[in-house]
Amino acid sequence: MIRLRQACRKLRGWRRGGVTVLAGALAALALPPLGAWPLLFAAVPLFLAVLEGATTRRSALLLGWLFGLGYFVVAFHWIGFAFLVDADTYLWMMPFMVGGLAGGMAIYWGLAALAVRLARLHGLSLVIGFAAAIAVAEWLRGHLFTGFPWAAPGLAAEAMGPVAQVASVTGMTGLTLLIVLLAGLPLVLLSPGLRRERWLALALLALLPAGWGFGAWQLALPQAPDTGLSLRIVQPNVPQSDKWRSENARMIFDRLQELSLAPTADRPAGLAGIDYLIWPESAVPFLIDESPVAREEIARMLNGKGVLLTGSIRREAQAGDRPARVFNSIIAFDGRGDVVVRYDKWRLVPGGEFLPFEWLLEPLGFRKVVTVPGSFAAGPGPQTLQLPGGLAAAMLVCYEVIFPHDLIQPGARPVVIVNVTNDGWFGRSTGPHQHLAQARMRAIEQGLPILRAANTGISAVIDARGRLLASLPLDQQGVIDARIPSADEPTIYALLGDFVLMALVLVAVSLVLVLMRIHRRASGQPQS
Questions:
Q1: Residue numbers of the domain that contains 137
Q2: Which residues does 400 contact at the CB level (< 8 Å), separation at least 6?
Q3: φ/ψ (deg, to 5) at 380
Q4: What does the pLDDT look like over 153-193, one tens digit per residue?
Q5: Of 52, 158, 281, 353, which is the active-site residue?
Q6: What is the pLDDT of residues 92-146, one digit of tens each?
Q7: 528 pLDDT above the threshold of 60
Q8: Disulfide engineering: 354 pairs with which of 336, 375, 479, 487, CB 3.0-4.6 Å?
Q9: Catalytic annotation on 138?
Q10: Residues 181 and 42 in one domain
Q11: In terms of DSSP bridges, do strands 230-235 and 276-279 run parallel, antiparallel, or are they unpaired?
Q12: Is 8 a catalytic residue?
């Protein structure tokens, strides 16, 4: 390892850049669905060894950016599938959007590398300092400019069994800090020249079995019985290329109703006795709440009982000088076909539901992937809604489930989270798998079950500890019949949020300062 470390420090030019991009790409393979998390224990030390050889601030910034670029290009490549749905219109935009997004997100990692270079960290202090810097960078990535926390390194824990339960304490970003820290330790453990730091590195490595033990204990704790409420999730599997054609509206609506009513081995009576029926995001290509025919058919389908929750585009009437606004929503219909609850998505997808810097990009030919007049309007924020039948539910439309923070309305903890999505844009890519994995992390963080309806998959019932109780695979039409799981008590993360992350960063910075002081004493340098 010491020879490899020295060789990496001496790399220059395109070789150094190529190794750095490769290390980032390898790190991204730890994400779902591959879940090759052991690769992190090679990729992170490889990058840190290269970073130790950075002699200037500019080179450190560039190396961090290249590491992030390799990571995010692999992690985000699935986004390109959305531009293939209407290739004649959108294909030319694909390299600009995917490459631009990856390059933009990589800036945060470049700044993290610059921070540890400015502090002149080496060895174990570099490993700890970089883990803390990446955690801060990831926190910023999830908050600034509307935020985009997709593919956080902590998501690798999804393949690490019980370790994922640590998110109930630290949240996703705290889990990122711990995983990057652990992955960087081979730089110290396999370098004979760092003997003094090995014992502390070994002590830190013990965090991995400790996390596994905590998670195993958490999973073994008894849970309350289910709520006693029954649900059916419908996965219609309508190809994205067919979904928005007006001539398909009747076919799609009929398919949703047929699946909703269909008898199954578990429920020979079909929809009879179901308390809640869930359809996916933008389930039908028309304004369902404005259609008397659709509402009449919903009433006939429900037969006066139960509640339908469906994703739908909805329009708000024009008011004065304000033009009519369009929302991506979840609408609840009661057994009579009347609208009883509406939730409007408030975190909109950049480039999908609104075009950032529209004044600049639209004249250049760039367009939103989802075509409505203008951009979607944003709803008021997280809401817990009381549904007929007594269920208190937080609503999340698609992309909103990737955010660990501001997920639940303050002071109104729900019993369950309902997440509707349409991952049909992304085909059989890694995107739907990563989306599901992030939903599972939200369940762990909050101690709340998640009911997930996806147009083409992966629909799922997820318990309050992130376990899949039932699911439907990609590109399969069908239904899930299940009982709604119970919620756990609020987790530490649900109670404290990112204050735990702040504490972890402070501990990491304190360790770095101690190591720097020890190093100065050992080298005979004057104390500042």
A1: 2-220+494-523
A2: 345, 346, 347, 407, 419
A3: -80, -15
A4: 999 999 999 999 999 999 999 999 999 999 999 999 887 76
A5: 281
A6: 667 777 888 899 999 999 999 999 999 999 889 999 999 999 999 999 999 998 8
A7: no
A8: 375
A9: no
A10: yes
A11: parallel
A12: no
